[in-house]
Amino acid sequence: MLRLEIYCDEGEGEKVREVLAKWNLQFYAEEVQGNGNRVLKFTVLVPDFVINDVVDELRKAVDLRRAHSSITWTPVSGKSVKYDNSVKSLKKFKGQWSLAAIEGLIENANRQARVDPIQLTLGAVASIIALFGLINGSVVMIISAMLLSPILGPLYGFSLNVIMGRGRDALDAVASILKLLGVIFLSALLASLALKLGGVMPVEPTREILARGDSGLVYIVLAVILGYAGVVAIVSKIPEILAGVSIAAALVPPTTVIGISLAMGWWEIFIGSLCLTVENVLGLLSGSLLGLYVLNVSPRSYYERRAAKLYTKRTMLVMAVMLAALIILELLR
User: Fold this and answer.
1) What are the helix and strand counts (H, E) for the chain?
2) Global pTM?
């Protein structure tokens, strides 16, 4: 239960009453003094799962530029028959995100969006393990590499920051993804060159390497689905390791194959794995963004939400154009 307090001019009181009546909310109104002006004070009991929408409508009714005008809310505990009736009538809005949930998502995304040296080291180790799994045809080793890769955090950070209209933080998350993929690629390249000099590398690509050296339309669709499922899983509190493995499966092995094929001079596989990695990155980013958009995650205030929606639509348009270009290239191959 939240106690919402609104201070406004007398002329705005009728609009405030209309908003509160529309939402079937219990309220009390009284006249008080604010900065020497006669001000109306409304006290309202509001369920937390509709506070975003109620406040958005109240912002349109109250001119908050005035010094004596304000809209504030605080958690309270208690019992009210009228409040309980309001909750029952507003249950259809329970699927929307509360303020606390939004704050938690933002904090979690910002914490995971940036990679540190330890995570980059894990990426390098994952690449080496994947390399040995690929050249020896060991599926177990490849899966082990996926368990180590911390690729899910930056992916989640990108999608949530785009939805929130935080362009700089979204770019930081993309930079983190590129750093991780760069470390995976370089580790695989250097390790492959060392093993090649030692005569350990296979003369011909193994079946596991060939499987990651071929791109296609189906992989783009699968990457979009994986990105969607991954971000829905993490928002739904499903253990991150379950979602992370599926995401890593789309990025770690093909990125490792880029390094292996470049070191060995397998140019056809190099081009195929490079295309597959690019397709998977764009597909995962698009799918994760689509997932949060479908879940209706958005900023708290009306003005932030409007700006964020515009930013999200522009980002989705850019990514759709890039995916369309990849699809056309695949059809022409």
Assistant:
1) 13, 4
2) 0.69
Q: How far apart are CA 225 and CA 221, in angstroms?
A: 6
In sign, the C-alpha dihedral spanning 284, 290, 294, 299 is positive
Per the structure, the complete domain to which residue 199 belongs is given by 99-332
**What is d(CA 129, CA 122) in angstroms, rounded to the nearest whole number?**
10
Instruction: Check the CA dihedral 73-235-115-166 and report its sign.
Output: negative
- φ/ψ of 24, rounded to 5, equals 55, 45
CATH of residue 28's domain is 3.30.70.120
- Strands 27-34, 37-46: pairing kind: antiparallel
Q: What is the rounded distance in angstroms from the CA atom of residue 147 to the CA atom of residue 244?
A: 7
Least confident of 104-108, 131-135, 247-251, 319-323: 104-108
159 Cβ neighbours under 8 A, 6+ residues apart: 227, 231, 285, 288, 289, 291, 292
73-97 confidence digits (pLDDT tens):
888 877 665 656 665 656 555 555 4
Is residue 70 a contact partner of residue 7, using CB atoms and an 8 Å limit? yes
pLDDT tens figures, 254-274: 999 999 999 999 999 999 999
d(CA 16, CA 307): 25
Are 86 and 164 in the same domain? no
Asked if residue 308 and residue 175 are part of one domain, the reply reads yes
Averaged pLDDT, 159-181: 86
Residues 212, 156, single domain; the answer is yes
Same domain, 122 and 37: no
- What pLDDT is stored for residue 103 in this prediction? 54
Q: Which of 68, 93, 118 is the last residue of a domain?
A: 93
The whole-angstrom separation of Cα 74 and Cα 2 is 5
Percent of the chain scoring above 90 in pLDDT? 21
